[in-house]
Amino acid sequence: MTRNRFFTLAAVFSIAACSDNPNSAITGPIDQRNPQYPILPAPSTATISGRISVSGFLGEDRTIELRNEEGGVYRLVGYAAAALASVDGADVEVTGTFDANPGFVVQEFRVTGMYGRPALDGVLEETDEGFALRLSDGSLRAVPGLTNCADHVGARLWVIGWDEESGVQFGLIAAV
């Protein structure tokens, strides 16, 4: 009886293990256009928002973190995260993936507030009426009161106070 059970189990495992692709259990689904390479799952993107905190100096010692409203802290990494160091203390909306260990890989971001006030984030352009920001959605937003910034035409800026009497303030968004 023991021998019969052994052969029965061996036959069941052999049938279950049969496949046209001997590596299918290891590699996952196969791209039919190019069967040599498995289809790797794409990481899903996420959007998180909160306030930026930068600690340390230039180089490997510097950390850029985002603290959300619930108190969660996310370490931000990646090429786009370097520009976030120039907006320390800003409220931002960050899009990316949780690919880094530990951390959130930033693909893009938008400054939504600075110094507790709402902010615009865009590329500075000069128009016939003065200066305007080209926002990420492609729209052009005139910013009355924005002066002394001709040197920054073509650069990405945050702007606050455009709709208040307190005066317009702006800052450069760039990798530092």
Give the end-to-end Cα distance, rounded to a whole number of Å: 75 Å
Tally the structural domains: 3
CATH architecture of the largest domain: Beta Barrel
Average predicted local confidence, pLDDT? 82
Strand order of the largest sheet: 1-2-3-5-4
Describe the structure.
The chain is mostly beta strands and 176 residues long. It folds into three domains: 1-41, no CATH class; 46-114, OB fold (Dihydrolipoamide Acetyltransferase, E2P); 117-172. The chain is built from three helices and ten strands. A five-stranded mixed barrel has the order 1-2-3-5-4. A hairpin with a 4-residue loop joins strand 7 and strand 8 (140-142). The radius of gyration is 26 Å and the shape is elongated.
Short description:
With 176 residues, this protein is mainly β. The chain contains 3 helices and 10 strands. It folds into 3 domains: 41 residues, no CATH class; 69 residues, OB fold (Dihydrolipoamide Acetyltransferase, E2P) (Beta Barrel); 56 residues.
